Amino acid sequence: MKFQFRPSEERGGADHGWLKTFHTFSFASYYDRSFENFGSLRVINEDRVEPKQGFPTHPHREAEIFSYIVSGQLAHRDSMGNVETMSRGDIQMTSGGTGIAHSEYNPSSSTDVHFLQIWAFPFKRGLKPRYFTRHFTDEEKKDQLRGIVAPLGTEGVSEEREGKGLTPIHAPLHFFASLLSPSKSVTHTILPSLNGKSTKLVYIQLIQTSGYNTGAANKSKNAGPLISVVGGGATAELGEGDGVFIRGGQVGEEIVIENVGEKVGELVVFEMDDE
């Protein structure tokens, strides 16, 4: 495996007043040709939206779009007639397909909403737009990697709008989340590929739960979560907002993730086919 560490302060992003955001990949006015996508991953925005503010109705097509709620509430409304208010633990998947329009809004009068907005390229164009919601408790993610999203057809994936189990996505992408306690570790075993290739891509990011901070993360063990990532002889340490891109992972290889800090770390893991 080859590791590429990306510190939080090198992400793109902006403070728009009503919206404070970090961009893992090129987005809006932020462009870096080295970070346009990673396999089927196209967008990971870590957004914080102020009370009574939000994104007005706007269109999407040919994209799988999902939101992972960290804190606060996010109201969703779309052209398919879906109306939803999501809270911590909720995940909402919109399969844009041939085209949808939606809005996202913070309905609270006092509390920001903090969430990850994630886009992926679909494995087929011209799909019928669809919508799914799921809920995953903190207990389900405590000191384990909980599967959240998986390709349609994967065992455990339900096609119900509000079903139990994994959230379906029309892309060769798996998404996991964990709330990792100090001194605890989890192991991710690289899954078989959908396209028959022997190598996979993995991206791991530690969510910046302490607040919006554009400077270098304080990585002392007493300051916050500090995550060690080890795989294939390579290592990386992640503070809040940091990420590591992993290339060349072989199916069946293991990646060990350990919290070597003093606070619980909320982390996400993406695994996808190496296109």
From TrEMBL:
Residues 6-119 form the Pirin N-terminal domain. Pfam families: Pirin (PF02678). InterPro entries: Pirin (IPR012093), Pirin_N_dom (IPR003829), RmlC-like_jellyroll (IPR014710), RmlC_Cupin_sf (IPR011051). Belongs to the pirin family. PANTHER family: QUERCETIN 2,3-DIOXYGENASE. This is Pirin. The lineage of its organism: Eukaryota, Fungi, Dikarya, Basidiomycota, Agaricomycotina.
